[in-house]
Amino acid sequence: MTTTSAAARVINRRGTEIRIGQTWADNSPTRDPIRHFTITDLEATYGNVQAVCHITHGIDRITGEKVSLDRVVRIDIDRMHPTRTGYRLTSPDES
Prior knowledge:
Elements: E1 2-3, E2 9-11, E3 17-19, E4 23-26, E5 34-45, E6 48-59, E7 66-76, E8 87-91
């Protein structure tokens, strides 16, 4: 059973607050371009919460130029924390 819109905010197991409207970026040292995305929804499936994210753009690692990207992905909220292979919060939500 899938439940859409689990809540407007959740806290993952590392204590990071995840809210709809926040902007995050990929910390992966190998992913190119560096993805930037906005959380548009939170979905709960069997007790596991995923952030529904709209990837807005990327930054090319070599040139530093903005690369146009436009797609939706789902990311487990427990991966959203500032580590080498996680994600970093770039701006809080607008509310």
